[in-house]
Amino acid sequence: MASAPTRGEGPSPALVFDTLFAYQRTAALRTAIELDVFRAIGEGAADAASIARRCAASERGIRILCDFLTVQGLLVKEGTTYRHSETSALFLDPRSPACVASTARFLGNPMVQEPFDHLADVVRSGRTVLAGEGSVEPENPAWVEFAHSMAPMMAPMAAPLGVIALDGTQGPISVLDIAAGHGLFGIEVAKQNPEARILAVDWASVLEVARANAARAGVADRYQTRPGSAFDVDLGGPHDLALLTNFLHHFDAPTCVRLLERVRAALAPGGRVATLEFVPNEDRVSPPMAAAFGLTMLATTVGGDAYTFRELAAMYQAAGFADVAPHAVPHGPHTVVVGRVR
Amino acid sequence: MASAPTRGEGPSPALVFDTLFAYQRTAALRTAIELDVFRAIGEGAADAASIARRCAASERGIRILCDFLTVQGLLVKEGTTYRHSETSALFLDPRSPACVASTARFLGNPMVQEPFDHLADVVRSGRTVLAGEGSVEPENPAWVEFAHSMAPMMAPMAAPLGVIALDGTQGPISVLDIAAGHGLFGIEVAKQNPEARILAVDWASVLEVARANAARAGVADRYQTRPGSAFDVDLGGPHDLALLTNFLHHFDAPTCVRLLERVRAALAPGGRVATLEFVPNEDRVSPPMAAAFGLTMLATTVGGDAYTFRELAAMYQAAGFADVAPHAVPHGPHTVVVGRVR
User: Fold this and answer.
1) pLDDT tens-digit map of B220-258
2) How far apart are CA A121 and CA B79, in angstroms?
3) What's this model's pTM, rounded to 2 decimal places?
4) Which of A256, A301, B195, B230 has the fewest Cβ atoms surrounding its Cβ within 10 A?
5) CB-nearest partner of B288 from A24, A56, A71
6) Contact B65 A295 (CB under 8 A)
7) Which chain B residues have a beta carbon less than 8 Å from that of A289?
């Protein structure tokens, strides 16, 4: 995970210091996004003075920031000029369709980040320092930020999720999209199956974002919304398919089972449920991104986790689903777990 | 610098997300140090329940924290038990003489860290958001913390620095140790040359730490201190050697030259000055740790930097030093730059 910044061989505390300084990497990237450095470089500003002018910043500040970003592999430096790395050109320049820079807003949201300033208290107590139910407290405005800013992170997962979830199903179907957020997953299913009708559930303020995205995708006429908590609201149905994306990880296992039972009750016989989750291996320490995600759930929830497939399968089975199977999403750290009403 | 947490080939935003989440690595390591997790594991606690008991923490919190540390390479997991990695055994277990865990205190000190919460403002203005002269404001209590907690990071550099700085000089010599901090460097010179006498300069509160360390090393009878600013206080002399460790990077080049002129005036003819610094290559983006250090100086000082050898040599020459030469410190990211009174 770390650079090897020391000379010579043998044991070195480099990983320790790399870790103690790692917060600076986050701060530097957020700052560059906030100051629009990647747009300036993409539009041709090359030396520190030119980038500084475009970003209304100091030359000293930009030079040191861009050098730091170069060390991190987020820019390339030649002489005294900077240009995009492959990563920054594709994923940080706002002119790129794959740009994920907006995700810095949600990932730097106080709800996500502040508990890490009190992580020792979190580990002592075993639950978030956030009040009430933590990140899933009703109407938490962070989820509007999520819906607005996280779509670019999730967009590459939408098409594979749709293929896995639909599994070739054609014709008119009803699809329940729990905790729809930006709505991308339900919208993708509606695009892949032109006779699918979507019912999206989330907080009212979040559903505004999803509806706007559905309209932009041209599926508004098959896109309905139902505001409220997935634990309380009438889920309608019977549906043929339920999407449960990036949601179960916020809750402890009994709560997940309770939610899955509600979902099953809203599905037609033979109906299917598909999650999208960070699913670590059974060792819980690999692969890195899925395994590391557990810490975010420790910090921001009361009882959530990054569940292994065995744990998810047990929840599915306890809630009355069978044929539970994992499907790795290509080119991403996510896994889709599908089950069928028993 | 980053893990590759995605499956499959081709461009991936993994580095971007790794960077946006990097602050969690710092929080996790600081938390484990604060809760004494590495001591508990070193003393034999192996599963999450046992570690939690010893650390007065929750089992859920410890399990997720230790899994995260394992992902980072800071622990090893076998089944459901944890043990030290080579790194944590040597550098994080408080029972190891090479333990550097205390450095988390200075590196997490508000003076060092808070400016990174306002890094966009820093880059805009080109200087720290800290008041006055930033980290070098007179009597800043952070330097007492530095003196107490950073010695383990600097200890491995002391012996090589002493060898380079003394360059075989035997017999009675007078050594000026500017910004002595923990005092380790002057103390090491006193140990290598039993006739060397040290005059250590720093804030009064910091010199208490240095004097205690000198007494512990058995060199108190050859160790004198002079409280005050290196820019104002009488530096005594004439000295044969001046140590200027981890200090020049806090100031802009004209200020460094002014200080070096004061140091030269306190040296005997033929006297030598030796700095210890993070010295990046002339490209300013390698090696990683030395180059990345510039951002800390941007964030915490008015005009400091991680200077290249060419820049340091120019300062030395402007202040009247000749024969300026760099000496890489083995097994560390630091460089000693030596000059001789012209």
Assistant:
1) 999 999 999 999 999 999 999 999 999 999 999 999 999
2) 27
3) 0.94
4) B195
5) A71
6) yes
7) 3, 5-6, 14, 17-18
